Amino acid sequence: LIEIERLALQGDGVGRIAYQGKEEGKVAFVPYSLPGETIRGQKVLEKKTYGRWLPEAIVRRSPDRIAPPCPYHFQPHFWGIWCGGCNWQHFLVEKQRETKRRLVSETLSRLGRFADLPEIDLIHSENSWRYRNTVQIAFGIRRDKVISGFRAPDSHEIVDIDDCLLQSSASVRIFKNVRQTVRVLGLEPYVKQKDCGWLKHLLIRSSEDGSALVILVTRNGSFSEQKRFLQLIRSECPEVVSIYQNLQPVTTKVITGPTWIHLWGAKKLEEKLCGLRLTYSPGAFFQVNTNAASLLYQKAIQEAAIEPGMTVLDLYCGVGGLTLMAAQL
């Protein structure tokens, strides 16, 4: 049994092993657990000073635990593969925010060695679901069937999904249409273990008005069914305003490669934020939560206290939203 004491920066519960013979007292990291819980688990990693365990059963349950809304999230007693995208869906949102604030304070005190920290304010969007404007879907084959979804934790295995509660409904609809088109046209997904195949990932970037930019990440530049693919996606997904192909020829954790091929439509996606009209290309950086980005930008400009005549450097500026807001001052 493991008694969970706190949460770590990456979201795991941290506790001590109890009633386990020679391992008693050893530090244990347990994903999908909460402080105050007693967990019976299965060891998946052993190091000299700590171990990592997966929960098999919750012997004592935290009052802050809720049932994960997503069917692909980890559940005790579920020994299939589960999605590695979320790790706190079992945790009340209000408690998530409190924990994040505490983790920031602890990190500044322990690692940054700041003394007498002021109270940390937490700024957050009201949207807990359907807020992401970017999604990266992996493609593969299982039992001769094209599958697509997210990776399982610490694994190359793909969890085949039909929905993601963090993505917009339009983004999910586009993803499912692309998957069906891939199956109909016989496009071959990439298989990492054999280093063969063609389609590696699907990237979708969407704006608040529902427009979307679609990118196929492929192993090489060949695309024999390009014309038919464009016809089908354009007819089934009217919200798609741009389609690109990205070439990633090497086996790497980096999803996109250096070569972008514009196949159809607009070359950039447009977004309106804080009174600005921003346009960005498929590989440009933009905050994944548009509503939260608006709050973040406004707070950053307020804290910067910019006055006329100042010289302002915006480093790693992405699409340049903060730069343009600063320029207005």
Please describe what this structure looks like.
By secondary structure, the protein is of the alpha+beta class. Helices cover 21% and strands 29% of the residues. It is built from five helices and 14 strands. It has helices spanning 93-110, 169-185, 226-236, 290-304, 321-327; strands at residues 2-7, 13-17, 27-30, 38-46, 50-60, 134-142, 145-151, 158-160, 199-206, 212-218, 240-247, 259-265, 269-273, 276-280. A seven-stranded mixed beta sheet has the order 8-7-6-9-10-11-12, with helices on one face. It has a five-stranded mixed beta barrel with strand order 1-2-3-5-4. It has a two-stranded antiparallel ribbon with strand order 13-14. The longest helix has 18 residues, at 93-110. The model has no long low-confidence stretch (mean pLDDT 93).
Key terms:
alpha+beta; 7-stranded mixed beta sheet; single chain
Q: How would a textbook summarize the main sheet?
A: 7 strands, mixed
Tell how many strands the DSSP assignment holds.
14
Distance between the termini: 58 Å
Q: Strand order, biggest sheet?
A: 8-7-6-9-10-11-12
How would you state the average pLDDT, rounded?
93
Helix content range: 10-25%
* C-alpha geometry: globular
Task: Show the helix and strand layout.
Blueprint: E1 2-7, E2 13-17, E3 27-30, E4 38-46, E5 50-60, H1 93-110, E6 134-142, E7 145-151, E8 158-160, H2 169-185, E9 199-206, E10 212-218, H3 226-236, E11 240-247, E12 259-265, E13 269-273, E14 276-280, H4 290-304, H5 321-327
Helix pairs in contact: 2-3
